[in-house]
Design a protein that fits this description.
With 270 residues, this protein is of the alpha/beta class. Helix content is 39%, strand content 20%. The longest helix has 19 residues, at 51-69. Bound molecules: D-glutamic acid.
């Protein structure tokens, strides 16, 4: 555990708004911490970026964010980045990083039908990191990898006040539901932090009931392992959301951020 004399500063990072689903759990576990939520919206979506360009981008932005905010811990609340850039981040910076990677181990351990689907960005489901998780923790499950081309944008649009239609969401999620030899998929790993933003819609539209696995509670537990439990604090410090595009959030987005306990703060242009 890290030795800490005052409330820790935690930076939560994603390409966009998906990391809010991780931020919510971490902030509930450590409400006394000082938070900065940083969205690299200028380079969004990460799932369509070339790997070398994404590594260079995340290292550059992280260098600037660490210099500006001096976090005690950084949560990479993005599977697309974590499955690619964590080793380079850990080599480059001293601050501890907690990554978000597909929750394949708990999903395969819990599946009864042994048919598990990993739903992620097109990039995450092609990463060697993801294949290695399946090799090591597949637990004799048949794992179907589905890269969704549109679900990230649909989730962003939802928070920005443009609700996706049922047909649009269904088109992205239908391939997750597999039937084979009288067995059916019973577990779907949400391997992109944007997808839990749509959880209620996913549950409503599911072709049959499945367990959608969101890694956020496990990330929060890992943060508490590293920083220790919350301390009593009379006034939780205000959390700040910043956007690398420098664009000010619309009224609708600012209201959505406020529901997560975030104030749209000073923007950073990177
Ligand atoms: N939220 C991100 C993830 O967990 C990626 C979204 C994007 O493509 O930018 O993978």
């Amino acid at each position: 555990m890290l030795a800490m004399t005052s409330a820790p500063a935690i930076l939560v990072f994603d390409s966009g708004l998906g990391g809010l689903t991780v931020f919510r759990e971490v902030a509930a576990a450590r409400p006394d911490a000082r938070y900065v939520y940083a969205a690299d919206d200028a380079f969004f979506p990460y799932g369509r970026r070339d790997e070398a360009a994404l590594v260079a981008r995340v290292l550059e932005v992280m260098g600037q964010l660490i210099a500006a905010h001096r976090p005690d811990l950084v949560v990479i609340a993005c599977n697309t980045a974590s499955t690619l850039v964590l080793p380079q981040l850990r080599a480059e910076f001293k601050v501890p990083f907690v990554g978000t990677v597909p929750a394949i181990k708990p999903a395969c351990a819990a599946s009864n039908s042994k048919l598990v689907t990993v739903l992620g960005t097109e990039a995450t489901v092609k990463r060697e990191y993801t294949y290695a998780l399946i090799r090591e923790h597949g637990n004799n499950c048949a794992v179907t990898l589905i890269g969704s081309p549109r679900l990230v944008e649909l989730a962003e649009a939802e928070l920005r006040g443009n609700s996706a239609s049922d047909a649009e969401i269904l088109a992205e999620m239908t391939p997750c539901f597999v039937e084979a030899e009288r067995r059916r998929t019973d577990t779907v790993v949400l391997a992109c932090t944007h997808y839990p933003l749509l959880l209620q819609r996913l549950e409503k539209l599911a072709l049959w009931p499945v367990n959608f696995v969101d890694p956020a509670p496990a990330i929060a537990r890992r943060v508490v392992d590293l920083l220790g439990p919350a301390r009593p604090s009379a006034n939780p410090l205000p959390a700040q959301a910043i956007f690398t595009s420098g664009k000010a959030p619309t009224t609708i987005l600012a209201a959505a951020l406020a529901r997560y306990g975030l104030a749209a703060g000073a923007s950073a242009s990177v």
